[in-house]
Amino acid sequence: MSHNPTNVPNSTVTRDLRELDHGTDNIYESIVIMSKRANQISVDIKEELSGKLAEFATSSDNLEEVFENREQIEISKHYERLPKPSLIAVDDFLHDKVYFRNPAKEQD
């Protein structure tokens, strides 16, 4: 899963709290959903980055052999520029891109 959210702001955004209970009618439940989504995104991004950087791993144990690889640096910079997982998760939640369910509510 490649995360390239071009429409997600990369800085803090003031949000209307009334928008955040959309779909749940409970701000706290919404926050839990966004938090879990942010954790999923964070794990996905970390695995994706690790996979790309693993291609540059050398089998040498020699610590003296440190070299700069332009492509590796560019990949790292790309991931550093991505919005934080929490910002992506809020955007996903507000745009109905997150599937969630509450089994306790379904029993009622």
From TrEMBL:
Skewed-composition ranges (Polar residues): 1-14
Record has Lipid biosynthesis as a keyword: no
Keywords: DNA-directed RNA polymerase, Transcription
One Gene Ontology term, aspect cellular component: DNA-directed RNA polymerase complex
Segments of this protein annotated with the region Disordered: 1-20
SMART domains to which the protein is assigned, alphabetical: RNA_pol_Rpb6
Record-linked InterPro entries: Pol_omega/Rpo6/RPB6
Protein name: DNA-directed RNA polymerase subunit omega
Species in which this protein is naturally found: Sphingobacterium corticis
